[in-house]
Amino acid sequence: MTFPISAWFVLKTVPNYERIVIFRLGRIRPPKGPGVVLVLPLIDQWQRVDLRTRAFNIPPCKVTTKDGGLVSVGADIQFRIWNPLMSVVAVQDLNASTRLTAQNAMTQTLGKRTVREIQTERVKLGEHLGMDINDMTKPWGLEVDRVELTLESVLRAPDDSHSGPFIMPPSVPGLEGLTGPIQQLAMHFLGQSTEASPPAKDVVLFTDELSTEAPETKSSSVIEELLVAVRLVLSESLVRQVGACFQFHIITSTGQTRSYYVDLTQNSGTCGAGEAAKPDVCLSMSEQDMMALFQGSLRPFAAYSSGRLRIQGDLNTAMKLDALVKLIKTPMMSSYT
């Protein structure tokens, strides 16, 4: 008698990305859907289960590494439900349990690694962490698709007894949102410098780089010699590799600011004194720091993180300048030694 009205309450429409788990008189039934599902009133209890991929974020937490360092690491995790029945029956609060399990697994996994490994092998560590989480969440009908680790900062340097160079991510006030690109810039420059240096000099502390004094140079002829060295290495292949225009603001020993540009956007590239029309990146530094940078006695990352090198523009574009630095570094070092 009440079917035309009760049909709105007993018929449930289930989309393709959902399933309905029904408990009929306390006993679980096979999942229903997609399509129209009949639910008996006062007899059935039902619950919707979303099968789409979801994501959550683990806030940065402190982890003590194997070599005695202290890092602040977070993670972005994507997961999905592959078994609706197990996700409802096996665990009471699936989201809270998954978050807690992922955080504990991340702390235990990274605690067995060194600071160096966390900095350079984050993709590989994320894959291993995903497999560890899957082993614990598989009985819940949940599968982790992707784990991306985010290294916020290094709070304490590792012990000196462990070998291998230590890379300190910068902490620049007001640029906290650019942590990822800054770390990419640091890894790029330091990786190149490490490969070029002899193995015996490979162990360098970050504090030692900041205390390195730039060699004194003559204010009048230093920049002109550097421009001559840049013109010698300009080529069409370098333009195809870089494809950007750089504007330099150099502060001399007398306190004056001089402007120079290196345009690697067309033909074989040009360089000279003055302002570029449309620079992609602007770099500001002192004359002594600039010479130390091209001679190899000062690393770009150390100069940038200490404030001796200021960058305006895209940091990924600024990384391309390393191709020019590598071409000039060897002649510059041989002429000043």
TrEMBL record:
Matches recorded under InterPro entries? Band-7_stomatin-like (IPR043202), Band_7 (IPR001107), Band_7/SPFH_dom_sf (IPR036013), SCP2_sterol-bd_dom (IPR003033), SCP2_sterol-bd_dom_sf (IPR036527), Stomatin_HflK_fam (IPR001972)
**Pfam families to which the protein is assigned, alphabetical:** Band_7, SCP2
- Which spans of this chain does the record mark as coiled coil? none
Known CDD domains for this protein?
SPFH_SLP-1
Tell me which domain of life the UniProt entry assigns to the organism this sequence originates from.
Eukaryota
This protein is called: Band 7 domain-containing protein
Q: Which family does it belong to?
A: Belongs to the band 7/mec-2 family.
Output a single Gene Ontology CC term carried by this record: plasma membrane
Boundaries of every Band domain copy: 9-162
